[in-house]
Design goal:
The complex is a heterodimer. Chain A contains 14 helices and 2 strands. By secondary structure, chain A is mostly helical. Chain A has a domain at 82-140 and 175-307: MetI-like fold, CATH 1.10.3720.10. Chain A is extended. Helix content of chain B is 75%, strand content 0%. Chain B contains 12 helices and no strands. By secondary structure, chain B is mostly helical. In chain B, helix 2 (50-57) packs across helix 12 (233-256), helix 8 runs antiparallel to helix 9 (174-203) and helix 9 packs antiparallel against helix 12. Chain B starts with a helix and ends in a 10-residue tail after the last helix. Chain B has one domain (58-263): MetI-like (MetI-like fold). Chain B has helices at residues 5-33, 50-57, 59-92, 98-105, 107-110, 113-126, 134-156, 161-169, 174-203, 206-211, 219-229, 233-256. Classes of the chains: A mainly alpha, B mainly alpha. At the A-B interface, helix 1, helix 2, helix 4, helix 5 and helix 6 of A face helix 1, helix 3, helix 4, helix 5 and helix 6 of B.
Chain lengths: 314, 266
């Protein structure tokens, strides 16, 4: 017997209809496939990236005909030969690699004490302030942050104005390698601290107290207890910082002023300045390969660590 | 137990240095946006709101800002169902090939942004979709999707499988169980994930640069193009819009899930 209409609200009817529809298109005996059905949209979306890589691979095997500006119909490895032999690309690759290694080292050194204090402080107010100071630049975006540095470091910027007050001639602080690295370190700090903090939280404070009570001063405790135990966090943070700064575009473009190109800038120029899709794709694919190699190497050596998703991380 | 003085001093020297490094651009932009001069000088030449008036009446900047909001909205609207379903599936079920699925779903992070951006540019170019805005939103969703899945799986640990069984044994059909038991349990993750997706899409620069043309630039690209020509204080004023959005996102994140969640060890 059905209840009276008023006792059976509209939302229930809608849910009933949805349940009936769901049972019709997806009977219970298909139950085993449900997780895959739930994953399907995400798998499809990420599939776009795989398709994109496929198209990049295809384009990398075609050369640009400079008389017609069309891509060749036949496949050739000429672009790869150019990428490996032209000295310009070697210079850019070396600049990016050396730069990102220095940025990684500097970022980890700066981020570690910050993360440590943030995790260990007994004051909730200080912890909250440190977190806010971390998230604000993280949420502001690279372009705006780089713009802030332009104001500070420019030829008529804050630093140079301050120097002129004490009678020092303006120094060219922008548009050089160090400006790019400086900007990158600032950009990477929130990433590094956020990857380090969970690893530091996992270290019991008693261990440090124990080391202290056995006579180790705090430097030795740091070196022999905290640092080794924080290794998963250091590996994760280092990897993220290394790959992100190796492949960054905005900081070299804005703070380097065109003279300090990283790999991503060289790829962009191939597509939008010289319109050589083939060579640009080749460089992009080589960068993807380098990045994946780095990630794969670290994962096999140290495990996915803090980067794992889902059940595996619990 | 109190820490030795030397430890406190050394640690705080680092902390203060990082604080200055992190906050300097934000503070300087805030200061520069209120200058009354025509170029940016320090100390500012006096207080005025004229640059805010200028951006309020600048169609270009407002249009670019609205386009950025549209892109972020598309990104978030797509990411919520896709990321929530995938996150629950990963947290709840033992799936065959789970390891491979995880590595595959991390591709947006392992493929460098320039690679993802160029690939999507080629796809949308072939499909004749370049010049429209929604593909930019979709692209932002793809490249940041792991953030959404992470957020959901992190809060799915609070989901007790017995609860779902209890609902089912009380006669709730599968969809009701999902909407009344499963979804509320992961809600904090869905909220923090969608906030992250929205704010990251709002700031997304490189992929927007690759996928937009001069008619449909988003605000970060617009700022980048203006930086290259000349630096005037109206850029500082428009940057303050980003700072305000970021501050709002932090307040919401703190209110809904608490910032301290990012310190938890997994």
């Amino acid at each position: 017997m059905r209840a009276a209409k008023s006792a059976y609200p509209l939302t229930w009817r809608i849910m009933d209809a949805l349940e009936a529809f769901a049972a019709f298109v997806w009977p219970a005996r298909f139950g085993r496939a449900i997780p895959w059905l739930m994953l399907a949209p995400a798998l499809l979306l990420v599939g776009l990236l795989v398709l994109g890589l496929w198209l990049i691979g295809d384009a990398s095997l075609r050369t640009l005909d400079t008389s017609t500006f069309l891509m060749s119909e036949t496949y050739t490895l000429a672009n790869y030969r150019r990428a490996f032999t032209e000295s310009l690309f070697a210079v850019v690759a070396w600049r990016s690699l050396a730069g990102s290694l220095m940025v990684t080292a500097a970022t980890l050194i700066l981020a570690f004490p910050y993360a440590y204090v943030m995790v260990r402080t007994s004051s909730p107010v200080i912890r909250k302030l440190l977190l806010i100071a971390l998230f604000l630049p993280f949420f502001i975006g690279q372009v705006v942050r780089a713009y802030g540095w332009l104001i500070i470091l420019g030829n008529q910027g804050m630093v140079n104005e301050a120097l002129s007050l004490v009678g020092i001639a303006p120094i060219r602080l922008l548009y050089n390698y160090w400006a790019v690295l400086f900007g990158l370190v600032q950009y990477m700090l929130p990433f590094a601290v956020l990857m380090l903090a969970p690893a530091l939280t996992a270290i019991p404070e008693e261990l440090e107290a124990a080391a202290g009570s056995l006579g180790a001063d705090w430097l030795r405790t740091f070196r022999h207890v905290v640092l080794p135990l924080a290794r998963p966090g250091l590996v994760g943070a280092g990897l993220v910082v290394l790959t992100l700064s190796l492949t960054d575009f905005a900081m070299p473009a804005i703070l380097g002023g065109g003279s300090q190109d990283f790999i991503a800038n060289a790829i962009y120029d191939q597509f939008f300045r010289t319109s050589d899709q083939g060579l640009g794709s080749t460089l992009a694919l080589l960068l993807v390969a380098t990045g994946s190699l780095l990630v794969g190497l670290v994962f096999t050596l140290f495990g996915a660590g803090t980067l794992a998703m889902g059940r595996a991380r619990q | 137990m109190t820490a030795p003085l030397s430890k406190t001093i050394v640690l705080w020297i680092f902390v203060v240095a990082v604080l200055v490094l992190l906050s300097a651009p934000t503070i300087v932009i805030l200061g520069a946006s209120f200058t009354s001069g025509n170029i940016i000088t320090f100390p500012p030449e006096g207080f005025s709101l004229k640059w805010y008036e200028k951006i309020a009446t600048s169609r270009d900047l407002w249009d670019a800002f609205l386009r950025s909001l549209y892109v972020s909205a598309i990104c978030t609207v797509v990411a919520i169902p896709v990321g929530t379903l995938a996150g629950i599936a990963l947290a709840k079920y033992a799936i065959r090939f789970e390891k491979s699925v995880q590595i595959y779903l991390l591709l947006p992070f392992t493929i460098p942004l320039i690679g993802s951006g160029i690939g999507l540019m080629l796809i949308f170019g072939e499909a004749r979709l370049l010049g429209q805005l929604w593909p930019v939103g979709l692209a932002c969703c793809v490249i940041n999707l792991p953030f959404m899945i992470w957020a959901v799986t992190a809060s799915a640990s609070s989901l007790d499988p017995d609860l779902e069984l209890a609902a089912a044994s009380c006669g709730a059909p599968p969809l009701s169980t999902f909407f009344h038991v499963t979804l509320p349990a992961v809600m904090p993750g869905v909220i923090s994930g969608s906030l992250l997706m929205f704010i990251l899409a709002l700031n997304e620069f490189l992929v927007s640069l690759l996928l937009t043309d001069a008619r449909i630039v988003t605000l970060p690209v617009q700022i980048y193009n203006s930086i290259r020509s000349i630096i005037t204080p109206d850029l500082a004023a428009i940057s303050v819009v980003f700072i305000a959005c970021a501050a709002l996102a932090i307040v919401l994140l703190d209110r809904f899930v608490g910032l301290e969640i990012f310190l938890k060890s997994k």
